[in-house]
Amino acid sequence: MAIASEPGATAAHPGIVTSTSALTTCSNCDAEVLRALLHWEGRGADPDERIDVFVTFDEDGDLDEMSEAGFDPGHVNGDLVTGSVALADVAELAATAGVRWIAASARPHLHIDRSMGEIKATSLRANSPPYNAGGLPGLTGKGVLVGVIDNRLTVTHPTFVVPNTTPPKSRIIGYWDQISGPKPGQKPPSEFGFSAGLNYGVWWDEAAVAHVVAHNLFHEIWTSAEFDHGTHVAGIAAGSGSRRDGPFAPFTFVGVAPEADLVFANAAMLTTAKGVSEAAALIHQLAAKRGAPCVINMSFGTHEGARDGSTAMELAIDKLMHDANGDPIPGRAIVVSAGNEGDARRHGRKNINASGNVSFRLEVEEIVFPNGSKLSDDRNDDQLYFWYDGAAKIELRLTPPRSTPSGWTQPGQQSTISIGGTKVASVVSPPQPDPNNGKRKIDVTFVGPVRRGIWKIELHEIGGAAAAVDVWVERENLDAWPQLAIGDNITDNTVTSPATARSVIAVGAYTSEPGSDFKSYGSIAESSSRGLDSASGVPPDRVRPHMVAPGRRIISSCDSEERRPELIRARFGGWMLDHHVIFSGTSQAAPHVTGVIALMFQKNPTLTYVDVRRILAATTKKDHIPPELVLPNAVWGAGKLDAAAALAATPASTP
To answer: Which three-class secondary structure state does DSSP give residue 64?
Structure first.
């Protein structure tokens, strides 16, 4: 039905029209799947268009029956399977016996010398071979597999080569290009003994990578990401720093674990949470094949989810970290950056009474650089995610700038909102709470360029129960304008998913490089995402981040073959050499912790992620942290990473 809200309309400010319909199919689909269906129908319902999903099933679930319903299964882990399905077949899949819940695969975003001394890693090894010179322990991560899931890696970068080898010998033992389709002679991972569901993209095994590196065939393994985030992250965790760069001698920019083996998957930013979880599964399978301990770095995140560890990607990660009995698997850890949303005005929270009303203010603003240039026009679908207690029922309406209110959208309804005949937004409110957390969700999606100004979002409780309401802004294109910000924002609970998964180590960032502001040395990075702590009523095991590590002005490896210095300098203020660049963010903090865990696994490969978290938390530094603060808390976690103390507290493995 169409609900027109026209009062006050003028030629300059046309009224708003809301077209609302009931959600009569797919009651066991999450809001993202329902949103995809709504927009798919609006685009003409192409029967071949597909969506990546996570499917949860019970004892009646049968993969063959799901496949008959159009589902293409990927990696199976207990009662959770990744895969894809044509949007035309979603309803049939949802009705298949045993299918409990279908969740869309969210798209994660990347979180964009002296730090080794800052975390005291230099007391564990020499900067160059022999690493045990001077009586140092010589801990380098040797024998440990460091997995990096990111957007792109320059495999020929000298920091990933064994020093002083001719021809150069790569330390990268595998590379999964999830983006490219196989060329003649190339095959996906499933053809190399990995899970049958890992049947897409191209797998470069150790021999193939070695050939590329030995002959400097950079463009054989290359993706079109705008900048080399993955190379920078991997260099912090495990770069050897063996290449002279400008005035800097070899072994100046050395990573934490310079002799660890590396495996890379270019999943983040370019694909979805499905690709991320499948990349993690492949890395664990490779580690098992080699009998090696393994730590995975994920420097990215999404605002999808209620920050309680209940997203499909987080549940998949948790299953991966435990055996069939639910026990943590020895020699496995996953490190996730907490996010750079601390000062981004992306989160709001209010309490609504039974039958009460509250409203949020959304500010849509343009970003202009100091030189007067603007970020590119935003043609993507930006979103607001509302989560609230499942006992309540809330209807929502929007008032765009210079317009009139839309109609209300209630649970079990979807709406399309237009102004002057142009679609500006959609609202999807699923009929049922999410079975993984018992909470309800409302998904608001802005279509095309978002009208600048102040949007008013009104909520009205109609179910007779009070509730706490959280809203997060999700940006599809972080570099585009206009920027969306919650006007009445709060900084807590801005840690992104999957850093809120129950079995990961979440890492915030602090300033270890004085730069021009010497007062900021040692302080928390303003952008470092905040979590929740005991003061907010969460139990100790849900406090995020777990700790912080250096994340400001970190020098590490960059793409030396396809550099785009003008891009890096414009967006990041990046100081740049031929092979190294400065970046900042929790993306850079996380791999410091990843590298330290590699050293811990070298010393004791039987540690579980529970052991690792306990040791890291118990050995943190507290300098420059206000002494009146009670740790762990939502800003600092347990404190600052201290590699030397963590390794001293790590028990040696017994034969």
So the answer is: helix
Give how far Cα 125 sits from Cα of 132, 133, 154, 557, 589, Å. Answer: 6, 8, 26, 20, 20
Per-residue pLDDT reduced to its tens digit, 461-507: 999 999 999 999 987 655 544 467 888 788 889 999 999 999 999 99
How far is the CA of 366 from the CAs of 27, 119, 168, in angstroms? Answer: 38, 38, 48
Segment 6-61, tens digit of pLDDT? 333 443 445 688 888 888 778 899 988 988 888 888 777 788 889 999 999 999 89
Backbone angles phi, psi at 124, to 5 degrees: -105, -15
Q: Tokens 């309680």 identify what position? A: 308
d(C-alpha 471, C-alpha 484), whole Å: 12
Longest dimension (CA), the chain: 81
Number of helices followed by number of strands (H, E) in the chain: 12, 30
The average pLDDT across 79-90 equals 92
Containing H/E element for 387?
Answer: strand 382-389
Spatial CA neighbour of 635 closest among 645, 626, 646: 626
Residue 47: both structure tokens together? 């029967």
Would you place residue 570 in the very low, low, confident or very high pLDDT band (cuts 50, 70, 90)? very low
Tokens at 290, concatenated: 């080699």
CATH code: domain 24-104+344-401+427-486 is 2.60.120.380
Element spanning 349, H or E: strand 347-352
Q: Which residues carry out catalysis?
A: 150, 229, 587
What's the CA dihedral at 281, 589, 267, 204 to 10 degrees?
-70
Strand partners, 123: none
The residues that bridge with 245 in the sheet, in sequence order, are: 248
| Cβ-proximal residues to 406 (8 Å cutoff; 6+ apart), any chain | 3, 5, 16, 18, 397, 398, 399, 415, 417, 425, 427
Q: Where are the beta strands (DSSP E) in 6-137?
A: 16-22, 50-57, 71-77, 80-86, 99-104, 109-110
CB 638 within 8 A of CB 621: no
pTM above 0.85, yes or no: yes
Distance CA 624, CA 485 (A): 30
What is the rounded distance in angstroms from the CA atom of residue 388 to the CA atom of residue 390?
Answer: 6
Do residues 617 and 546 lie in contact, with contact meaning Cβ atoms separated by under 8 Å? yes
Instruction: Give residue-wise pLDDT tens across range 349-373.
Output: 999 999 999 999 998 876 555 555 5
Pairwise CA distance, residues 563 & 264, whole Å? 20
Give me the CATH code for the 109-341+496-649 domain, please.
3.40.50.200
Whether 427 and 408 have beta carbons less than 8 Å apart is answered as no
The domain limits of the chain are 24-104+344-401+427-486, 109-341+496-649
Residues 149-195 have pLDDT tens digits of 998 888 999 999 999 898 999 999 999 999 887 888 899 999 999 99
Q: From residue 70, how far is each of 96, 147, 392, 551 by CA, in Å?
A: 11, 33, 35, 45
Separation of alpha carbons 363 and 382, rounded Å: 13
Establish how many alpha carbons lie within 13 A of residue 180's alpha carbon, considering only the half-sphere containing its beta carbon: 22
Q: Following CA atoms 582, 585, 591, 593 in sequence, which dihedral angle do they give, to the nearest 10 degrees?
A: 130
| Cα angle 458, 389, 461; round to 5 | 35
